[in-house]
Prior knowledge:
Layout: H1 6-13, H2 17-30, H3 32-44, H4 49-65, H5 71-92, H6 95-112, H7 114-122, H8 129-142
Helix pairs in contact: 4-5, 4-6, 5-6, 5-7
Amino acid sequence: MPALPPDLRKALLNLPQKEKDQLLSRLVSQDSVLCEQLTYRLLEGPEALEDRREYLRRQIDDPVRGFHQSPNDLLLIVRQLQARIAYHAKITDDAFGEVDLTVRLLNRVFEHQPQVAAGLLFSNCWPFSASFRRKRQYIEVSHPEAWLA
């Protein structure tokens, strides 16, 4: 984000309060993330943090329990839920909640969808599946006692 030139900054600070308020409200209304951050900080406050976390917990638990036709279906849902968790962290600056909710998401996936999650590891939709298979083969050959599968 470019910095304001010093002359423009001084001119903005010298504006009457009414004009500053109008400019501020126009600028804030153009940025939806900033608008939601201000809503959280100014209107809801830190008391609403646990409510927001609980809402995300319910969003995580419901779709992960459902039936998924393929690993790609589950992967799509996990990506969408992870995006919601990241957005929550961006709005609330809740680092603990981000980690807690991400761990919850992964635990629910492995708990409720073990076969589909296992399919992710060995299908083409997993980004590093070929690398994973090569490492698995190396471990099976060089250290057969270490491989528990």
